[in-house]
Amino acid sequence: MKKVYRKILSLALVTFLLFGMTACGEADTTPDASETSKEETVPELTVHGMWDSSQILDFSTPVLQEIQKQAGVKLVNTVPTSATDVDQTWTLMMSTPDQMPDIIINSQISKMEKLGMDGGLISLESLIEEHAPNIQKIFEEHPELLAASTAADGHIYHVASMKELKTSTTWVIRQDWIDNLGLETPETIDDLYNVLYAFKYEDPNGNGEQDEQPFISRLSGKDFTNTFLSLFDSSLQLMVRDGVVMYDPLGEDFKYGMEQAIKWYDEGIIDQEIFTRGKESRNVMYGENKGGFICDWIPSTVQYNDSLADTIPGFKNVALAPPIDQNGNQKVKWLTAPYAGPGISSNCEDPVAAIKFIDFMYSDAGRMLDGFGIEGDTYTIDADGNPQFTDKVKGYEGGIGAGRKALGMMARLGCIDSIEMEYAGIFNTLAQEGIEMHMANPQWYPQDEYLNFQFKYTAEESQEIAIIQSGLDAYVAEKTTSWILGNGDFNAEYEDFVNEIKQRDVDRLIDISQAAYDRVAKSN
């Protein structure tokens, strides 16, 4: 990797000392101006600071304090610390539109764009052109970020964020169990079924009990079903294939995938509590030496090799290449697509200060602070010039991700997570090898065929889509979960299922989404 970080920080210090002076408005040029008078010129910006339900921004944390210091602003979170549900806080904010804070964040691009097209966020193009050189630079370097930031009406209402790493969420399997049973690493879906069947019935953990749950997940409900169906090139949602929008539950691959889901669950291959175990299932199943196969973040999942080494000798998770499906295809369905970034509300009285702050988050200094924190405190630079997290970050019970959030990193106020940041969170060579394997095989990544693909709808389309999907998604999720759990006869009921989907305006959903896709495709 590159020896660039010290140089970045040195240059950034000069740049953002100047930036801070600008952001503070008319600076007092009197040589003996007091610190008090300087502080009074620092703009205060309110923030809807809850990106998802796992984190409410605390602007008193060390890294966020340093970010405010270098950017020359004071940030105040309007989300109460007692909040637990990101959707509820969003709804509450929307209920008083004339009191919305200056800067707004959310994880969903569609929500930010709808708010912008409804008038709740201001368009940012002229502000970016006049006051945001760093944002202009990242749009040039990452055109996909500009596309993600641009709404269907052609305006920019938020500045999207992204990870440079193409994927770090993929299939992970217990290599020690494979070795214990004298099996081969699975390459196809059929191979995978045979290995997981052996995991269930041949006692790979060696305790003499049939207590293994081969296929585990931290996801539940429709999210798990989506993950499972991706093995068979299907899903519960809209998908683009060769530029054509399809609704996967109407396809043959969906039928085959659902038949396998029902079979695998009935045979005990899928965790029997998959829909109820919750987010701690990975910790529980690995800690009890019962889990064998999962779709999850490679670094944290392979890290169990180290954290469980003393209690489960030989524990060995490895990243698995995507199994070749029933059609002979090999695809990665979980790609790191851009996600929503910060926008400026129509209530903001100082949009220039707000855009300058957001611009700072996309600068070299801002990216280092959000990604790694404070040099000498949360990270150091190694002999090769690469940043490495300190024990202050690594020592958190929830892992590096929890440590970074607790100290004020990963604030979602605008960022590009570098590949170097991902590698700094890896302490296991097998995890790095798994990521490198996926990076080295671009043929595994089909254009637009991934589970978190987002369409660009107009305000009118968004309203109609929301009405259609609210009932359709709930119906499909309920039926598929019920079938997997053994309730009803999937094949006998499938025709009625399709008819019900069509009665719920799925054809209209497809038509609107095809128009939305074509609109963006033609503009790129």
- Main β-sheet: number of strands, strand sense, barrel status? 4 strands, mixed
Class by alpha and beta content: alpha/beta
The order of strands across the largest sheet is 4-1-5-13
Mean pLDDT: 90
Q: Kindly estimate the percentage of residues that lie in beta strands according to DSSP.
A: 5-15%
Report the span from N to C terminus: 32 Å
Helicity, as a percent range: 40-55%
Number of helices: 24
Number of strands: 16
Rg computed from alpha carbons, rounded to a whole number of angstroms: 25 Å
* pLDDT < 50 runs, ≥5 residues: 1-31, 33-39
Taken from the alpha-carbon principal axes, the silhouette is globular
Characterise the protein shown here:
- The chain is α/β, with parallel strands linked by helices and 524 residues long.
- Helix content is 46%, strand content 11%.
- It is built from 24 helices and 16 strands.
- It has helices at 5-23, 35-40, 62-71, 86-94, 109-117, 125-131, 133-141, 143-149, 175-180, 189-201, 221-230, 252-266, 281-287, 298-302, 304-307, 351-361, 364-372, 391-394, 400-407, 419-424, 429-439, 459-484, 490-503, 506-523, and strands spanning 44-48, 50-52, 55-56, 74-77, 103-104, 162-163, 169-174, 213-215, 238-241, 244-247, 291-297, 317-320, 343-344, 379-381, 387-389, 416-417.
- The model is unreliable at 1-31 and 33-39 (pLDDT under 50).
